């Protein structure tokens, strides 16, 4: 069973930069997994921020960026704002076309 | 603007079948893939399955034996049926337009909470 790993929690100061990562319990994440990042604020439905590793969805500020860092996918927030305090989920697309979510990272901005 | 609205019973008894419908408005079901995603209270997201407008499906292996999803293009609706439910199936269920590897999930419903309890 493939497990997608994320940091359970992270904190960043307002205006700071934070990088959240998304890995695999076995193996490396590459662009072939088309990593997607979703943001969920409390009580709301999620929204997609980044898809296909580094493409921002419509309306997403450019302070959000996606990449591959080493053997993981990464979501970097530059100039963090209070509004960025949310849960962030990565999704990987497996060769079988099934989608697998990571456990999510709770980001605190303080 | 595409809108998705999930509907169905909010309470289902253990061992029974959970049935949900997703109505798509502001756009057509045709030419797209659609996923169901769920989130147990206080926990993370879990992809359940996808279906195309033409009926192609792919299921989460852990749920496949209990799942049936379908599409009704004439009504612009999707349906999900999950049999033999237990308390572990208690979750908010989301209907989502799924653009796949090259587009992600671009429209989400507001979600509907289904509680499994006697």
Could you describe the 3D structure shown?
The complex is a heterodimer of chains A (110) and B (118). By secondary structure, chain A is mostly beta strands. Chain A has strands at residues 4-6, 9-12, 17-24, 36-40, 47-51, 55-56, 64-69, 72-78, 87-93, 99-101, 105-109. Chain A is globular. By secondary structure, chain B is mainly beta. In chain B, 0% of the residues lie in helices and 52% in strands. In chain B, strands 2, 4, 5, 6, 9, 10 and 11 form a 7-stranded mixed β-sheet that branches. Chain B has a 4-stranded antiparallel β-sheet with strand order 1-3-8-7, with no helix packed on it.
Q: Over the alpha carbons, how many angstroms does the gyration radius of chain A reach?
A: 13 Å
Poorly predicted ranges of chain B = none
Helix percent of chain A reads under 10%
- Annotation, overall tally of beta strands of chain B: 11
From the helix content, strand content and strand pairing of chain B, which structural class follows?
A: mainly beta
Task: Please provide the ordered H/E string of secondary-structure elements of chain B.
Answer: EEEEEEEEEEE
Distance between the termini of chain A: 36 Å
Oligomer: heterodimer
Anisotropy-based shape of chain B: globular
What's the helix and strand layout?
The complex is a heterodimer of chains A (110) and B (118).
Chain A: E1 4-6, E2 9-12, E3 17-24, E4 36-40, E5 47-51, E6 55-56, E7 64-69, E8 72-78, E9 87-93, E10 99-101, E11 105-109
Chain B: E1 3-7, E2 11-12, E3 18-25, E4 33-39, E5 46-52, E6 57-59, E7 67-72, E8 77-82, E9 91-98, E10 105-108, E11 112-116
Parallel strand pairs in B: 2-11
Antiparallel strand pairs in B: 1-3, 3-8, 4-5, 4-9, 5-6, 7-8, 9-10, 9-11
